[in-house]
Amino acid sequence: MLQFVVVGLGNFGFNVANTLEADGYEVLAIDKNEERVQESANTLKHVVQADATLQDVLKSLGVGNFDVGIVSVGTDIQASILISLLLKELGTKRVISKAQNPLHGKVLERIGVDTVVYPERDTAVRLAKQLEVPYMIEQVPLVKEYSIYKLKVLPKFVNKSLSELMLNKKYGVNVVLIERGEDIVFPSGETVISQADSLIVVATQDDLRIMDSEEGK
Questions:
Q1: CA dihedral 210, 212, 216, 217 (to 10 degrees)
Q2: How high is the mean pLDDT of the chain?
Q3: Would you state the pLDDT for residue 159?
Q4: Does CATH number 3.40.50.720 belong to domain 3-120?
Q5: Which CATH superfamily is domain 129-213 in?
Q6: Which residues touch 50 (CB under 8 Å, ≥6 apart)?
Q7: pLDDT exceeds 80 at position 126
Q8: What are residue 144's phi and psi, to 5 degrees?
Q9: Which SS3 state, helix, strand or coil, does residue 147 take?
Q10: Burial of 28 (0-12, 13-18, 19+ CB in 10 A)
Q11: CA distance 210 to 91
Q12: 57: Cβ contacts below 8 Å, ≥ 6 apart
């Protein structure tokens, strides 16, 4: 099972650590702020107060034995870069670091960070896209402009079969699964859509906008 070390227990770092631990993974959480460590220790199993910018400290904690290191240091960009570099040098197999801005992200990439994330930007983008397509529930990006979307059923789809709707032919929207209560339906052309269903589709955002704009037609 994968082992994770999370450095920085602000909102992002704490929630990542808490989610991983709740899913059954081993997580070591590190922060130099005593109050934050004490608060986190009420929820997380393994929390250490330490200065992660010191190589000897990280080495003593055995970070090189972890599969994934997640660097979620607040606004201290210098500390973020240094900690990310130290994790790489000490042998952490994969390093994921939170960036404050594009320049910070470029530096992290240059020093070998495997994945750079921009939580605030990405959250804002997801929210904007959901607002653009009101019936969207979730989105998982695939390649280029394509994503997997979980959609509410539009009123014009209710009590019609997929062969009647011709979503692929009309809009380029491919229905791959249907959530029906607790059940998963692998649809065929004869599958009839109900109001309570959720559609799992592969499409582009433009495809969905066109489908939405023609809802009343």
A1: 20
A2: 92
A3: 96
A4: yes
A5: Regulator of K+ conductance, C-terminal domain (3.30.70.1450)
A6: 30, 31, 32, 57, 61
A7: no
A8: 50, -125
A9: strand
A10: buried
A11: 49
A12: 50, 51
